[in-house]
């Protein structure tokens, strides 16, 4: 008599996630029906659809695997979980193109205001946070998720644990992006820089972020490599600090659990202080520490050289982590914030120059003995130029935090030029370089489809960055000087409208620079698509027979 095969059972992880998403589905359906405003009803509907889709994917995955579980190792080698990394890489490219496009549109709106189309959804005030969130959190965030999941597995020589959790992190994060982006366009937001999403989106991101931290820590816990590589230190600092910043800055009380409106618990100058403690450290830990982790893995890998000084990388880490958290008050010079607080922020900002340049030197000197590769490898060129932009931005930032400089630069386009030299040159280029490495690796390709296209991407986008930041430097300094110009009688020499009129040609140049940067990103998207579909497959490494010693 043939024994009956036992039916496979869902894992505890699958059951818990299914239950959680089921409860979330019922709340979202209830909230959509009881919503006190149409935007909340719309977002509740998105939440219900996402929850139902999540349950469907869990059940379908359970059925497809038929009780089988992916082994941690195959033939003694780690069996890395690459599926979530592939999704995040493609999502990063999609959101990047969307975010760059919106940025160009609002740049053109500043030059030609009629382009707001006289519609509420296309005004600068709604599209500007859409642009910043799309490029920072959607593009940059997905790059960080993809690279961190890849790097922590490879440097730990261990498979990322969980059937559902890695996918929950990736897909849940992108659901947050959809909620945030649609909320901006529809006019729902807190009005906090880099933290505009309302309470329910913030709460959802908190849940996703805790799952992200746990899966990252669990991978480190399972590591076969005794040493924790320095890139993982930077990733951990980024994950933990962003969690702390997010929770404190977004502490709010909703008017109704069925409505989008909430009130932040901080008020007045305390709110300003918390906002810029968050705002500057979002730059420091999201856009700096996280992407320094990328630098410390991808530059040595692409150059095929060890990190120049591992000891310097550890000093870089601890100095940066300690100093950055204190620098936020320099955003509030000459405001209601007590002067001692803003001066303290300025002092720490100036001190930050040293560890920042220590990291830059470490990244650049990693190419010792491999500088010739810059002529032939445009991917490495992107990564190295990104480190150079990091050095430039981290010199300019402390300079602009000094009170005498800040009195000229603050509230002007010089700040916009500074931000975009870091965002386009540092974050953009290191992300592009990482994706050019990562996509072939996770799809089993030898290299990107066309290095010539990478070369075109590099030069076109570099020209765009130069046009962008130089036009904003000139515009900003001119703007500041015009604002502080007085006549012999002590009256302001220029009206505000005259300063706006004077900036028009620089706004046009800025938009042109953005168009060139987008053109480079489009070339990249085409190249990565061709890499995935038609790239040359990686040949399996042959087992090398060791010769006996003589």
From TrEMBL:
InterPro entries: Cyt_c_oxase-like_su1_dom (IPR023616), Cyt_c_oxase-like_su1_sf (IPR036927), Cyt_C_Oxase_1 (IPR000883), Cyt_c_Oxase_su1_BS (IPR023615), Cyt_c_oxidase_cbb3_su1 (IPR004677)
Cofactor annotation remark: Binds 1 copper ion per subunit, denoted as copper B.
Superkingdom of source: Bacteria
Record pathway: Energy metabolism; oxidative phosphorylation
One Gene Ontology cellular component: plasma membrane
Gene: ccoN
Organism phylogeny: Bacteria, Pseudomonadati, Pseudomonadota, Alphaproteobacteria, Hyphomicrobiales
Binding site for heme b 1; low-spin: 131, 420
Bilayer topology annotation: Multi-pass membrane protein
Binding site for Cu cation: 280, 330-331
Keywords: Cell membrane, Copper, Electron transport, Heme, Iron, Membrane, Metal-binding, Respiratory chain, Translocase, Transmembrane, Transmembrane helix, Transport
Protein name per its UniProtKB record: cytochrome-c oxidase
Species in which this protein is naturally found: Pleomorphomonas carboxyditropha
Keyword tRNA-binding listed: no
């Amino acid at each position: 008599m043939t024994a009956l095969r036992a039916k496979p059972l869902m894992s505890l992880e699958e059951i818990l996630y299914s239950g959680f998403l089921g409860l979330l589905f019922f709340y979202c359906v209830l909230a959509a029906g009881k919503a006190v405003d149409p935007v909340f009803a719309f977002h509740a509907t998105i939440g219900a659809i996402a929850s139902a889709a999540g349950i469907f994917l869990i059940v379908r995955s359970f059925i497809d695997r038929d009780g089988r579980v992916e082994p941690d190792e195959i033939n003694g080698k780690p069996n890395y979980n690459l599926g979530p990394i592939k999704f995040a890489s493609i999502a990063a490219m999609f959101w990047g193109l969307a975010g760059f496009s919106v940025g160009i549109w609002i740049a053109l709106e500043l030059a030609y205001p009629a382009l707001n189309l006289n519609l509420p959804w296309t005004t600068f005030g709604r599209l500007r946070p859409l642009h910043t969130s799309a490029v920072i959190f959607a593009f940059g965030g997905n790059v960080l998720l993809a690279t961190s999941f890849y790097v922590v597995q490879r440097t730990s020589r261990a498979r990322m644990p969980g059937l559902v959790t890695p996918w929950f992190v990736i897909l849940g994060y992108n659901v947050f992006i959809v909620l945030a982006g649609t909320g901006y366009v529809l006019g729902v937001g807190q009005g906090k820089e880099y933290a505009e999403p309302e309470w329910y989106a913030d709460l959802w991101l908190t849940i996703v972020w805790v799952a992200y931290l746990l899966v990252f820590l669990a991978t480190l816990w399972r590591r076969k490599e005794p040493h924790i590589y320095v890139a993982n230190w930077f990733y951990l600092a980024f994950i933990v600090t962003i969690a702390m910043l997010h929770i404190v800055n977004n502490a709010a009380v909703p008017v109704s659990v069925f409505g989008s409106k909430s009130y932040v618990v901080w008020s007045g100058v305390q709110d300003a202080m918390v906002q810029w403690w968050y705002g500057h450290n979002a730059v420091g830990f999201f856009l700096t520490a996280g992407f320094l982790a990328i630098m410390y893995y991808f530059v040595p890998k692409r150059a095929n050289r060890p990190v120049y000084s591992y000891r310097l990388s550890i000093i870089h880490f601890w100095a940066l982590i300690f100093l950055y958290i204190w620098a936020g008050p320099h955003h509030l010079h000459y405001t209601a914030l007590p002067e001692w607080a803003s001066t303290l922020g300025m002092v720490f900002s100036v001190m930050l120059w040293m560890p920042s340049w220590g990291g830059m030197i470490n990244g650049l000197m990693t190419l010792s003995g491999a500088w010739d590769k810059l002529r032939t490898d445009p991917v490495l060129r992107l990564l190295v130029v990104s480190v150079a932009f990091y050095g430039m931005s981290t010199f300019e930032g402390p300079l602009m935090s000094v009170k005498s400089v800040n009195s000229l630069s603050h509230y002007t386009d010089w700040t916009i030029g500074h931000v975009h030299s870091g965002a386009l040159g540092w974050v953009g280029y290191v992300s592009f370089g990482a994706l050019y490495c990562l996509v072939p690796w996770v799809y089993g390709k030898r290299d990107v489809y066309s290095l010539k296209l990478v070369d075109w991407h590099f030069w076109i986008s570099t020209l765009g960055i130069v046009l962008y930041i130089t036009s904003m430097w000139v515009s900003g300094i001119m703007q500041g000087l015009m604002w502080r110009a007085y006549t012999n009688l002590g009256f302001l020499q220029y009206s505000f409208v005259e300063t706006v009129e004077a900036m028009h040609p620089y706004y046009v140049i800025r938009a042109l620079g953005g168009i060139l940067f987008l053109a480079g990103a489009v070339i990249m998207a085409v190249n990565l698509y061709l890499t995935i579909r038609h790239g040359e497959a990686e040949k399996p490494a042959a087992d090398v027979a060791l010769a006996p010693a003589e």
